[in-house]
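User: Last request for today: this protein with fe (ii) ion, please.
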Amino acid sequence: MLPKHREYPFPIPCGWFRVAFTGEISKGEVKSLEYFGEEQVLFVSDSGEVQLFGAHCPHLGAHLGRGGRVEGEMLRCPFHGWGFDKAGACIEVPYAKRIPSRARLRRYPTIEKDGIVWAWYHPTGDEPTWAPPDVPELSNADWSAPVHHRWTIRTRNQEIAENTADPAHFSAVHGFADAPAPRIEFLEHCCRSVSESRVPRADGEMATSRLEVSWYGLGLGLVRSTGAFELLVAGTNTPVDEATVDACFSFSVCRARGLSPDEGAGKAFIHEAIRQMEQDIPIWENKVFAERPILCDGDGPIGPFRDWASQFYP
Ligand code: FES
Ligand SMILES: [Fe+2]
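Assistant: Here's the final one, the structure of the complex with fe (ii) ion:
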């Protein structure tokens, strides 16, 4: 429980969120997850398709991640053997003549691409209104295999994303000599910020690079650095519950441009991104959400950002 002054005025946002990386789960495996303040099971059927269901059986409530089995395209409950198809509908009851029509598991729409398993969360189960974007760098042989860094943060998705609309914190928190002056635009479920940024070179000197930060809902922030370097950070933030976020940075660097995540500019960039994240975390974990912030002329577009973010609380 949060103390009253730490409560947050919004529930868990809807949208696409990373629930696994490809390779974290294999065919026939049933994995228990806890996201969105709920419990789920993630599994891969024989055809290779990934599905995410609510963890508890509609019959008598058994947890399908505790002994549930994948049989072909079906998931079978360990308690009385009811079988569910990939839409979540019960299609087999080993000992009944009629299958109760309302017997179905909660299903979260899923998409697996570019090494990420995405699930759509909506508080009332509405179907997706947009799709997660392609992240071609993550599945391109010219780019290095992603290196993941993960944090469990006591905050909310919106607070993390709001940093993009807050260039003024770069000096105080991250020690930048000049705050960046990004151009920020909001379009449907996307928010994009473009700026010139100083990034460290392998020799310790700084170079100028174009930095583009694109949010797709509140679950994915893609940072692309071009110019001096070609680098990518895919920041995937998944709500664990109302007050906790499972955050991950997946780094990939352009090998075709001679970069490596293990040395030189690639390594320095990754190090710098992690350093900045770890400077932001204590701010997020201890701040309150200022509903009526007092802003000044040098602040970024906090108001427009919040208007944009409000679409994710249906
Ligand atoms: S609780 Fe799942 S089949 Fe009975
Ligand atoms: Fe920051």
